[in-house]
Design a protein that fits this description.
about 160 residues, alpha+beta, eight-stranded antiparallel beta sheet, 4 helices, 8 strands, about 30% strand, globular
C-alpha cells in the first residue's frame, strides 16, 4: 500500500482503514494508541468539543467523545508522518502530492470530484469528492517546503467531517 492508495481510498470511501466519523474516540485510541490532545482539551477537559487529537499527520476531531472529523495533513517536501495503522512504513513515502496526481488517481478509480468554491481562492484550491464528501485542499508550496514544482498546487490536507 502506498500513500496515494491511502489518499484515494479515503477520498473514495470517507474511511481511513478502520477509522471513520462517528466512531467512539476510545475505539480509535484502542486502534492507534493514545493521541496527543489539543491544548484546549488539556485546559478544559475531555468533554470540550471540536478539537483534535493528533497522531503525527493524522488528526481526529472529537465531538461528544466521538470522532466528528478525520484529517490527513501532509507537508510537501518531507516524508509522510502517519501512524502504521494508516500507512505502514509512512516515513518511506514522500508527502509531496501534486493536485494533478491526486485528481488523475481519483479519475482512474471512478471517484467523482468537483471544485469546492468555498475553499478555492488566491493561491489555494480545493476539491470535494462524491459521494464520500471528502475535501482535498491544495496550495502553492511555502518557502520552507523543498519541492521541485514551486509553481504547482500541492496537497496539504485531506479531510472529512460530519455536521
Amino acid at each position: 500500500m502506498t500513500l496515494m492508495d491511502v489518499l484515494v481510498d479515503f477520498a473514495r470511501t470517507g474511511r481511513l482503514g478502520p477509522l471513520h466519523c462517528g466512531m467512539p474516540l476510545a475505539e480509535a485510541e484502542t486502534l492507534l494508541g493514545p493521541g496527543r490532545p489539543h491544548p484546549a482539551i488539556l485546559m478544559k477537559g475531555p468533554d470540550v468539543d471540536g478539537y483534535p487529537y493528533a497522531w503525527g499527520g493524522l488528526r481526529l476531531v472529537v465531538t461528544r467523545r466521538a470522532v466528528s472529523g478525520v484529517w490527513i495533513t501532509l507537508r510537501p517536501g518531507s516524508a509522510a508522518n502517519l501512524p502504521p495503522l494508516v500507512l505502514p512504513d509512512a516515513g518511506e513515502y514522500e508527502a509531496t502530492v501534486l493536485r494533478e496526481e491526486l485528481t488523475t488517481a481519483l479519475d482512474n478509480v471512478g471517484c467523482h470530484h468537483e471544485i469546492d468554491p468555498v475553499l478555492t481562492f488566491d493561491e489555494q484550491s480545493s476539491i470535494r469528492t462524491r459521494p464520500a464528501d471528502v475535501c482535498a485542499v491544495f496550495s502553492l508550496p511555502g518557502r520552507d517546503e523543498c519541492v521541485p514544482h514551486r509553481d504547482r498546487h500541492h496537497l496539504h490536507d485531506l479531510h472529512r467531517h460530519t455536521a
